[in-house]
Amino acid sequence: MKDTFYVTTPIYYINSEPHIGSAYTTIVADVVARYKRLDGYDVFFLTGTDEHGQKVLQAAEARNMSPQAFCDELAGKFQKLWKELKITNNQFVRTTDEIHMNTVQHFIKKMKENGDIYKGQYEGWYCVPCETFWTEEDIGKEKICPSCGREVKRVKEENYFFRLSKYNDALLKLFRENPNFVQPDFRRNEMLKILEGGLRDLSITRTSFKWGVPMPDDPEHVIYVWVDALINYISAIGYPHDMEKFEKYWPADVHLIGKEINRFHSLIWPAMLMSAGLPLPKQVYAHGWLTVNGQKISKSLGNAIDPREFVKTYGNDAVRYYLLKDIQFGRDGDFSEENLITRINADLANDLGNLLHRTQAMIKKFNDDIIPEPFENDTVDKGLISLAKKTVTAYKEYMDKLKFTQALETIWELVKYGNKYIDLTEPWKLGKLPDKKERLNTVLYNLAEVLRLVSLMIAPIMPDTANEIFKRIGKQAVENFETLEWGRLEAGLSIVHGSPLFPRIDLKEHRWVSRVSEESASEKAEIEETANLIEIRDFAQVELRIGKILEAEKIKKSKKLLKLQIDLGDLGRRQIVAGIAQHYEPEKLIGLKVVVVTNLKPARLMDEESKGMLLAAKDGQKLTVLTVHRDVEPGAKIS
Ligand code: MSP
Questions:
Q1: Distance 268 CA to ligand 1 centre (A)
Q2: pLDDT band at 517 (very low <50, low <70, confident <90, very high)
Q3: To test ligand 1's pocket by mutation, which of 24, 131, 259 has the most ligand atoms within 8 angstroms of CB?
Q4: Are residues 394 and 462 in the same domain?
């Protein structure tokens, strides 16, 4: 029987559609799943959606939909996107699935039986967008969520609590005895610090809304969305309804997650499992963020990039290659279209594309499209073969440690050496000398064999490219890693020709995805010479929205400032302090739809918090706030 391998992504919040930042975890998990399948494992790859909680409820209300209908629509969009990105998950779990909800209740009962759940009063701070409880210390004077920078809410409720503090010592022991439990090391150390400071008990139910799994025996309470969500990792593989399947795949080999949700996975989740008497996952790997100009890609920051646009322009494999090669897994990395194009032109079109093209052209010319039988290898050939063998070993070591950048660098040394090998062996000269036919055949075979090994190694990252190269060298499709060793290519196969795999991107003709699309390169050059003009993406950093003024009042001791309460649709209600008191009577502003900059850092003016800015036109002494001439919903984006 095959060994099993269980890899998961976090389940995605369903309040908005996925962007390239959120797709990143799933793409990486797909690479891991494909790699392990090729390596002979029985892989279970899980992803899904996190559908309960206040934020989903609010998003559904904003769309005038029932939460279930809203979730059904969004879950469909996630599933569609993963299909388009050729993600090979074995299952898509939804936390509104009945089977999952039953598991959550069963799990909570186990924790209760173990004496780990008690009723108490929760009074503290809550961030709805992150669905996270915070302490006074965490939120500081500004009362801002340390994870997303948004305002937190004061919550006072009778809740059930999980005795998380009871597991502090057991977790410390786990971390000390098993340094690989959380990776990379610097993320593990962050968690160790929290543990050394001591964990507090965790509030695990809410009563202020109903959209969640009811607490067993006390349905006035719904279970905290994070506790509900974490249990997906076992409900989806059969706990407790199909224990055979559960025991086959659990414990998970790796939970892949982003760094901001490490605490939930590395501390709370193992403590929950200990409480329920279940084995712990083998590893939690917390990766960094994809950023644009250093800022996290996120829907609320308005810099979300639709992966589909990039895939349409550059191809799925090229985008995957770029993400895995350029962004060091574990670290933050800026998503840059320029760098993506550089990778395509240099690594894919030039290095790999040339090796394929030159090899095919020579096999056609010198051996009628048939891969020849090799004869004796000389010193140059032995150098190539030895490099290929070393590459295979290093590649596997790197991939097993999730060091994708290094794995690809290793493969590319072989690709480049393959091109150099052509220059060294000069097949075009050999082709003119009839007594060198055996030598020529050996060179041609070796080149085709390099291509086969390279395409097998890149298969988890670029599955379509790998299959295509296999077809070009006369094989059906990629095989598994049992054939990942030198010399397994059969002589006598007929090669198949086709157009270049990665045509070079000519920047003069190119239509950028994230820039002014119609702009030609020469126009772009002219623009860049004009120093005081900005790029469209610089403008795109400012998030502008329509806000409706709900309340306006003067601020005591200030002649200039008015305090406004503004409805910003899905962003909620915000207080903004504006310097317009000398131009407007407060009551005249009520109901006005204005233009608001929504992603400014919060500020305090005359002791009042201000989260954003109104736009206004100034004409001499006269000041007019900008409004819209047609009715637009609050929260509408301006672009
Ligand atoms: N619902 C929770 C997870 C519950 S798991 C039991 C959640 N969802 S999320 O939709 O906000 O995030 C899903 C994944 O996308 C996380 O791993 C998160 O780190 C990742 N990313 C979202 N934006 C990202 C970037 N800009 N860059 C990289 N990954 C990021 O958290």
A1: 17
A2: very low
A3: 24
A4: yes
Whether the pLDDT of residue 524 is over 70: the answer is no
Looking at 440, 467, 483, the residue that finishes a domain is: 483
Instruction: Give yes or no: residues 383 and 454 share one domain.
Output: yes
Domain-embedded: residue 432: yes
- The vertex-569 CA angle with 568 and 573, nearest 5°, equals 50
Binned at pLDDT 50, 70 and 90, residue 470 comes out as: very high
Ligand 1 atom closest to Cα of 290? 27
Residue type, 362: M
Query: Can you tell me the distance from the alpha carbon of 517 to that of 542, in angstroms, rounded to the nearest whole number?
Result: 19
What is the residue with the minimal CA distance to atom 21 of ligand 1? Answer: 22
Structure-block tokens of residue 561: 């400032």
pLDDT class of 540 with cuts at 50, 70, 90: confident
Q: Does residue 608 lie in a domain region?
A: yes
Looking at the domain assignment, is residue 265 inside a domain? no
* Residue 218 in domain: no
16 C-alpha to center of ligand 1: Å?
A: 12
Taking only the tens place, the pLDDT of each residue in 574-583 is 999 998 998 8
541 pLDDT more than 80: no
Instruction: Please answer whether residues 415 and 454 qualify as being in contact, where contact means their C-beta atoms are separated by less than 8 angstroms.
Output: yes
Tell me which of 22, 28, 71, 257 to substitute to probe ligand 1's pocket, judged by most ligand atoms within 8 Å of the beta carbon: 22
* Dist CA 387 CA 371 (whole Å): 21
Output the residue whose Cα is nearest ligand 1's atom 18: 258
Nearest to 8 by CA among 240, 261, 242, 243: 261
Rounded Cα gap, residues 135 and 424, in angstroms: 66
CA dist., res. 10 & res. 47, Å (int):
7
Pocket of ligand 1 (CB under 6 A): 10-13, 21-22, 24-25, 50, 229-230, 232, 257-258, 260-261, 289-290, 296-298
The whole-number pLDDT of residue 534 equals 53
Structure tokens belonging to residue 570: 């899905």
Number of domains present in the structure of the chain: 2
Least confident stretch, 159-163, 344-348, 601-605: 601-605
